[in-house]
Amino acid sequence: MDALALARLQFAVTTIYHFLFVPLTIGLALTVAIMETIYVRTKNPAFKTMAQYWGRLFLINFAVGVVTGIIQEFQFGMNWSSYSRFVGDVFGAPLAIEALLAFFLESTFIGVWIFGWDRLRPAAHALAMWLVAFGTSVSAFWILTANSFMQEPTGYAIVHGRAEMTSFGALLGNPQLWVEFPHVLLAAFTTAAFFVAGISAYFLLRRRNVEMFRSSMKIALIIGAIASLLIALNGDAQAKHVVRAQPMKMAAAEAVWNTQNGSAPWTVVAGIDQAAGKNTFALQIPGVLGFLSGTNHFLGIDQLQKQDVQKYGPGNYLPPVAVTFWSFRIMVLAGGLMILLAWYGIYLMARRRALEGRRRYLALLLPALGLPYVANTFGWIMTEIGRQPWVVYGLQKTMQGVSNTVSTGEVATTLIGFTVIFGLIAAADVYLMVRYAKAGPENHEPSPEVPLETAAVL
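Above: the chain sequence. Below: its structure as tokens.
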């Protein structure tokens, strides 16, 4: 493997690892803020205990996420200096705002929340967590502003071989941003919902702190059901946008080699032979692709390759088709399972079925805790791999963005070093999360029943 391949592998490892923590941080901040708000409204101490318990897990996750994010940023100067020079005048602004505004906002009010339990009025203390939740969402917005430029460049001009920002408003108005940001935000809420539901299921199966975890489960299922359904609707809009903005990515995601007109079939599964430029087999549903893509003229990979050669010059403009195709389907499958599980829980609640008595359902929620992580990871793999060979779509290829002076040995050394460090961090994180999750709330006395009607504050 050369320096380019190792640099790509290193960035993939660090990015995927970092993004294991980001959605849970965003989602748990909102969930804890909702729980504490219910406590302020109802004066029910069970909700205070609930907010403190889930807040403890939030803090562990937040701390590990910060460490992994800092390590990730070093790579822009180390392995991707050519990319940084090319896009730094555009990329730098949203990243600077994220660090100076959003990150310090959430960090400051996390401190207020930790140390303010006995020093602030309950409403002021709850407001601190709402500001943390706002800060985490704003942080994601600015990061995705930068990423959206990589997907669909707007508000720039090429000056002396570098991209320079010409309109900050155009950067913020990027249509890719406004389909990508809601998708990530809703995915974060879903991640937290299934995290809370999974751990609550663990306690309900063991009949520990039943009242508190029954109420936690109800809140989680409400959030998860709404967010998972909305993310499916938003995902449909995002896919239709990508068909127009990055047609090669969606052609690869659907393994469509030749342009399809009219009511084309949608491929459920396929055997992909990229070298031969065809599918060796395919299970298809007739007439669905046009509906899903929003077009009756779906461009194929072969035709798009010819168009890109005419537009950008000779080269191979195909992404890894099999990876893009299967990562898209794994993401959709995981999302569909979450919708079914969350709405089945809502059905049980509506029928006033005792959740702690539905042991098979609770047993399913334990492994389902991993579903949002699967969906998040493969969603990003599809987004980034499907953009190849571009690091900035249509402007700079990935091979042009790697540092010219970094050797294969140097990249290999940092890759091994980061992998070892992340492995140790992962071990510490899993140990702490499992330890504090299993310990349960500080007060192990049975909490009074928390009426579901108090969820009206949602």
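The beta strands are 156-159, 162-165, 260-261, 266-273, 278-285, 297-298, 390-392, 396-397.
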